[in-house]
């Protein structure tokens, strides 16, 4: 091996150039903040059309041969002939793990031993070929890196690859390796898997050793891996997972988190229906159940109530998911501070703008009420075990949002980060295992679903992914060919429609919201030109937590009546509930322009302005 590789000097695969650093500010803890990377990235996109070598996935490349295949009669090594990489927080003997930051690498010595997961994979024939780019210090969701650059997303080159383990996801998606490792703290393997269109598996907390990885938050850090082929994903699991973590059982039960799917701007035909149709063709699955996972968590995790935001505009279930995300981030900050505050204060590392914000939030965080964070974690794990038991699988979206464009000038907004963390907190805080399965794209954006099983049910979940994958891919192809044709009723009976509207109003006042939806829907069948019918149905959908339907009804109402104040307000509520705060504020302001003293609108405007600060 050459000396530059052994010392960890890597650069950006031949595209290293003289950098002019621009200091944006010096924070309280001594973190120096730089903003040049985003500008350099935009210049690169404007000036080059070709993809950089290795898609910019690697910090540095070198090969470590696996252990030799034992002679017969020994079994063939499970990973013989396969190559893999690992993110830049896995230690390799003789090299310095950079943790995504050159100041970290500069202030640490070469590792004296290799990370346990890497060693286990090498013993089974895997060939290690290099360390991959990651967000600095394991923070961040975009996948960008101020120092090493942002890897190119092979699935969508104009979009960010997702982070923090962006390089590992890109290396797999670009077919540079057969599989790759990363660590998952707050979605660090699940988010890039979704954005890059590859499979991934996040193991149960504590089931796979993290010895030899650099900790971000040890109560949340888990080992994860990416692959294109479900059989490779499964074989890696066979190597890393202990034998006692479960297998494929005879009867399995899927639970669809309908409230989470309501947050997506993707039709159910491309998500829920794909999975439901796939299991119908396979033996061993009971009829699926549809649940509101947010409400379930709210009623089974009592300690979560202390972390909810005081708002009347968010349903109980959504409030619980938001509170989970809050607890997850508080716990991450506390443990990162415990692990690295001294280093941050002493070294004053050069960090990108978004990363520096997270680091400062961590090192300036308070340690009040820390025990309550661990109590929430324990209650959530027990609640999910009670729901899923040994044979249940929770189906939910991987993220509630799309990746940002690489040439976007704005910083990562709180709204975007909220959408990224809306669902990952369920598996992160509970420590449960989770698999990500790509489902193609919608409007040129990648989509995926996640399957979550109880803590310790890793092999059970992996075998189900392998079992279902072919059927799921068949259904993805069929779903991509579906065209929905709207039915238009030309023979409207206006008098009967008004009567049905009144029945809907009575059902709504009686809190029978599903029945109200039925009456309003029947009214619309008879007269589809009345904005009030759509607006009233939207109100019922909001009470049911069916935000996509509510937003769609408001849009139809506004097409029919551009000055419908209630339609603007209710669409704003629906968009706020799914974390589209900027669009929600625009709707509320439209309503206030028409009706300046509307009390609900004024309250909503103040609340949304606070969220967008």
TrEMBL record:
Keywords assigned: Membrane, TPR repeat, Transmembrane, Transmembrane helix
Question: Is Transport found in the keyword set?
Answer: no
List, alphabetically, the PROSITE patterns matched: TPR
Q: Where are the transmembrane segments?
A: 20-38
Per the record, the domain of life is Eukaryota
Each TPR repeat, start to end: 497-530, 531-564, 565-598
Name of protein: Amidase domain-containing protein
Record the organism: Oryza punctata (Red rice)
């Amino acid at each position: 091996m050459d000396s530059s590789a052994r010392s960890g000097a890597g650069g950006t695969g031949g595209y290293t150039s003289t950098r002019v650093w621009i200091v944006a500010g010096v924070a309280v803890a001594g973190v120096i903040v730089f903003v040049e990377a985003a500008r350099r990235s935009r210049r690169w996109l404007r000036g080059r059309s070709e993809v950089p070598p290795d898609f910019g996935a690697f910090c540095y490349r070198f090969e470590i041969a696996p252990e030799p295949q034992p002679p017969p009669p020994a079994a063939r090594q499970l990973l013989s002939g396969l190559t893999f990489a690992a993110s830049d927080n896995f230690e390799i003997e003789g090299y310095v793990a950079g943790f995504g930051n050159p100041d970290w690498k500069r202030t640490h010595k070469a590792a004296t031993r290799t990370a346990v997961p890497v060693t286990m994979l090498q013993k089974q024939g895997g060939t290690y070929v290099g360390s991959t780019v990651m967000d600095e210090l394991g923070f961040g969701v975009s996948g960008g890196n101020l120092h090493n650059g942002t890897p190119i997303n092979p699935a969508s080159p104009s979009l960010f690859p997702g982070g923090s383990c962006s390089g590992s996801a890109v290396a797999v998606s670009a077919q540079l390796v057969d599989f790759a490792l990363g660590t998952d703290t707050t979605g660090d393997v699940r988010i890039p898997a979704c954005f890059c269109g590859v499979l991934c598996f996040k193991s149960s907390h504590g089931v796979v050793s993290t010895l030899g990885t650099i900790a971000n938050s040890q109560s949340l850090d888990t080992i994860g891996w990416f692959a294109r082929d479900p059989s490779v994903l499964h074989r890696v699991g066979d190597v890393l997972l202990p034998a006692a973590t479960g297998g494929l059982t005879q009867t399995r039960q899927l639970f669809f988190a309908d409230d989470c799917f309501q947050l997506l701007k993707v039709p159910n035909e491309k998500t829920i229906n794909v999975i439901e149709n796939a299991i119908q063709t396979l033996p061993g699955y009971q009829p699926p159940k549809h649940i509101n996972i947010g409400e379930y968590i709210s009623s089974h995790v009592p300690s979560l109530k202390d972390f909810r935001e005081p708002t009347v505009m968010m349903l109980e279930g959504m409030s619980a998911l938001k509170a989970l995300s809050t607890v997850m981030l508080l716990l991450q900050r506390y443990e990162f501070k415990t692990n690295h505050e001294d280093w941050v204060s002493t070294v004053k590392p050069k960090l990108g703008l978004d990363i520096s914000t997270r680091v400062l939030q961590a090192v300036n965080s308070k340690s009040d009420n820390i025990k309550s964070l661990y109590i929430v974690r324990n209650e959530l794990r027990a609640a999910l075990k009670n729901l899923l038991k040994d044979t249940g699988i929770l189906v939910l979206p991987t993220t509630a949002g799309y990746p940002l464009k690489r040439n976007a000038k704005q910083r990562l907004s709180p709204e975007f980060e909220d959408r990224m963390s809306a669902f990952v907190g369920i598996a992160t805080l509970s420590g449960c295992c989770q698999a990500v399965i790509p489902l193609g794209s919608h409007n040129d954006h990648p989509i995926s679903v996640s399957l979550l099983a109880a803590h310790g049910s890793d092999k059970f979940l992996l075998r189900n992914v392998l079992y279902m994958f072919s059927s799921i891919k068949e259904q993805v192809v069929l779903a991509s060919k579906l065209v929905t044709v709207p039915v238009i009723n030309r023979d409207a009976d206006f008098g009967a429609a008004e009567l049905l509207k009144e029945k809907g109003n009575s059902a709504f006042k009686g809190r029978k919201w599903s029945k109200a939806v039925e009456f309003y829907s029947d009214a619309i069948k008879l007269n589809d030109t009345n904005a009030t019918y759509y607006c009233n149905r939207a109100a019922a959908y909001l009470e049911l937590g069916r935000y996509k339907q509510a937003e769609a009804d408001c849009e139809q109402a506004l097409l029919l009546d551009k000055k419908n104040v209630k339609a603007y307000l209710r669409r704003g509520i629906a968009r706020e509930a799914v974390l589209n705060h900027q669009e929600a504020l625009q709707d509320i302001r439209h309503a206030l322009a028409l009706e300046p003293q509307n009390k609900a609108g004024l309250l909503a405007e103040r609340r949304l302005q606070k969220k967008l600060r």
